[in-house]
Amino acid sequence: MSHKPLYFILLLSFAACQQEKPQSMVAAEHTSLEDASCHSNMPQRFATLTGAADDSLLTTNKAVSHENMVWIEGGSFGMGATDAEGRRDEYPAHKVKLDGFWMDATEVTNAQFAAFVTATGYTTVAERKPDWEELKKQLPPGMPKPADELLVAASLTFSQPNHPVPLNDASQWWSWTPGASWRHPQGPQSDIKGKENFPVTQVAWEDAAAYASWAGKRLPTEAEWEYAARAGLKDKRYPWGDEDVEAGKPKANTWQGSFPVLDERWDGFSGASPVKSFNPNAYGLYDMAGNVWEWVADWYTEDYYQTLAGKVSENPRGPAESFDPQEPTVPKKVTRGGSFMCNASYCKGYRVTSKMKSSPDTGLENTGFRCVASN
Ligand SMILES: [Ca+2]
User: Fold this and answer.
1) What would the CATH number be for the domain defined by 1-18+32-375?
2) For the chain, which terminal residue's Cβ has fewer other Cβ atoms within 10 angstroms, N or C?
3) How many Å apart are CA 189 and CA 179, to the nearest integer?
4) Gap from CA of 150 to ligand 1 centroid (Å)
């Protein structure tokens, strides 16, 4: 697949969850979602310079196996937040009409991704050593060569601090780890043996899109994703309804306890969990909340929903270009669903309208994807 332009970003001032607010020790107290959302300004190495879409990956003519997929009947729904818990990019709620589509019942697993790699020889972004000669062609003139230690194959891993840290500084718990990849999600000492049924992680957006294309599928639009997650429920906060994630019995793999220091694993899992570990939603889709964030097709802008206010949008595909006011030079794709790192104290990414944004070349230990197909 083609390499999109790369822009070297040396953002060592990693403002954690998007907002560049004064840092304070807030681990033990409530932080508003706007202050510390999961829309993290993650530690960056490289990011595409332009947010122009390579939408050729959205469509494919290959025959699709519907094994392990669910048919989602088309229809209309209210997209976006109607409660007071959302962040700016979740408003206003607006009406969306969608054609029907098939959706993977689970997040793509390590076994499924391994089959793709075996069949194609594909190398993920995290496994590629950045080539400075190539990179500098795509940089603003005069950008100095980055330190050699940054020009290595690497991906972002979660390193759990042993003391409370500012929740608005993601660099406290995310670090670039050479050798981390989908085969070694926590770094070179880790592996995925026995985890064939876990969601694949450490995949960049373009890796997910490449898998989807190989499978004859595509990544869901953000609207398709939310429609499927809601499973016919109206104005509910979660894929299962309104019951709090930590009430009743465990419904999703999230984080219980004081993030990021203490994971009480009340839900049974620290880190990712095998797919189908929790009940599916009413459409038969698993892990639409929690476990790992899921890449969708759409570019991110904070005000996209405002452009759709008062209209009925048919099969919306997101903004034409990305713009994140927190990091104007870094295009972002949307991720959905939250992860095993989400907790009410700072993220609540498992809310059905919540979204995160990441540069398309970023792999994360808590991010994977699932696919859809139109027919
Ligand atoms: Ca958990």
Assistant:
1) 3.90.1580.10
2) C
3) 9
4) 31
